[in-house]
Amino acid sequence: MITNTGIPEIIQQIGTHLDLPHLFTAIRVCRSWNHALIHCLWASIDDSLYSWGRILDTFLEGRRMDPNDNSGSDWLRKVFLKYGHLIQHLHVRRREILDAVCVTRTCVELKSFRVGKVEPVGLQLLEHEWMYNLSAEEQVKMTEVRWKDAMEGVVDSLNFKQAFKPRSLDLSMTTLAQMEVDWEVTREFWMLLRENRGLQVLRLDESLKGFMSVVSSEYFMETLAPLKDLVDLENDFVQVDLAAVLQAVPDLRRYAKFTNPFGSFSLTQPVQRLIHVELNKSTSCEELLQFLRNSPNLESLSIHSLHRAPVFDANDTETLTDDSPSQLQRLQISMLMNIDGHLLDTVLPWIPDLRTIHLTRLYGRPVRSIVEHCSALTTIEGSNMGPIVQVIPGRRQENLEAGALEEMIMACPTLEKIDWIGKTLCETSLWDYTGVWPNLTYLRCQIGGLRVHTVEDEAIWKHIKHLPGPFRLEEQRVFEQQELIRQQQRLVLRRIGALRNLRTLDIGADFQLHENTSWRNGGQGGSWVDRKRPRMYDCLRLSLEMGLDELAGLKDLEVFGFEGIEHEIDEAGLGWMSEKWNKLRVMYGLCRSGGLLSKEETEKDLRRERLLSVMQGLRPDVVHEPSGVCIMMPLT
């Protein structure tokens, strides 16, 4: 006799290894499979992934035509009423999902609850016509009456009604009917948080301010205090002091607040479990050293900037740190100027174990401080904001950051990761440098400053490149210049090819970081247009003729990117990559840009599409992803 003892457990184990589409297929095989796998299907919900968008668009279509059509919302609430208790990890960005989660209040077994950038409601609920006939004073009174009605039945906290304040009513921007829904969601949202006592991760995005009532810091602390398992908090919603948060949640390990930092940077007492802090806040050297002293196990810290305060002497710093070095391993400073180098000389000696530095700007003076004090540095990270250019009358513009990254790289032979896609390595001395980085596994930055033809010389080269010669004087000059270009390209690629442990090599441009809107023609009659960062021309060409085969030593390469550079990769080059890089899994650079493009960019887009088809035929296992999406409009 055959029994199915243990079969459901086996099916559940299989379910943990399936992605959502396959899991959704598996639960429809039979009733027993459905019963065994339904927990896996609903254990983690992220409404930005898979088919959630399509499902919502289908069931909420009526709402787009009629704001008072609740059929889609009712369906969604029924779904969460039935399955909400199975959800353990919930990541929400859609307003309809958040409303259903809050109003049903069935998601009471959450371990992580992340509210991302919530999309605003497309259409407001229609208001009663009689509201528009009331005077401004009568509208205010009616708002107060309906606010009290919305708060009826709340027994969670004696201070609940005092903790929230209704937003002022502006019937030109919203309706009181919509505000009543917002009040209900606000009330149920905080009740839901209090019911999830096992919550470990909580994220509150700033976008909640767009429709939720203002919450008091006291009520926020009262809500956090019972969450004894909470270890990770990202809070851009409530203005509250970090010290107060740690007093309410003493076991918190990670805290982040990126917008409108509130309160002082100091800690009132030592905290042993805190390991990660992100605050978009400026601080002085004194405050920073005190913070490090009171968080002895802190591993990662992100701040906005350092004050230009007087430098302390050695006795002062020893007093602030108790003569005990910090265990900090990662430091991020968003705005670090050239004149702040002496501040780093004060702070960095007390962080001897620093492994990772993340900066937005990189200047010579801070670089020298980092190199001098951070001998164990293994990772350089950066966010691109474009170069800082100093304009001096009568002289050429001077890039104040030129050569800084190269200086740091040459002084840090222990580097394992360079991740600064917005920076360009262009110093000739770097490629002449005889040192090697034996542990480097990740190189993500642009490589430029290489010799290129002028437009006129490029036209001459295209004409003579397939001719046997002899050439005329001007053509001979271009021919010799092309040989110098080829030699330099091969030299750089040979240096990169010597980095045998590289697993990620991305030398393209990240267009996502360069999208901006500019005013064309100015003044009256102007128009807003999207501009794309210019393509790189003084870059590596990446053809076999120009030295692509010099990268044959990168046997472990898994990710290769060349998005946005003027490369010359062709079918032969793709064939070489598919053969030599057996471990390649991801490629950036062959996806179409999309959007409104110029004629030249459209031709390049079609060429990328042809190359993509070739590469997919050679290596169907390689995933092709765009590094960013950008729309360019021709400026005429």
From TrEMBL:
InterPro entries: F-box-like_dom_sf, LRR_dom_sf. It comes from the Eukaryota. This is F-box domain-containing protein.
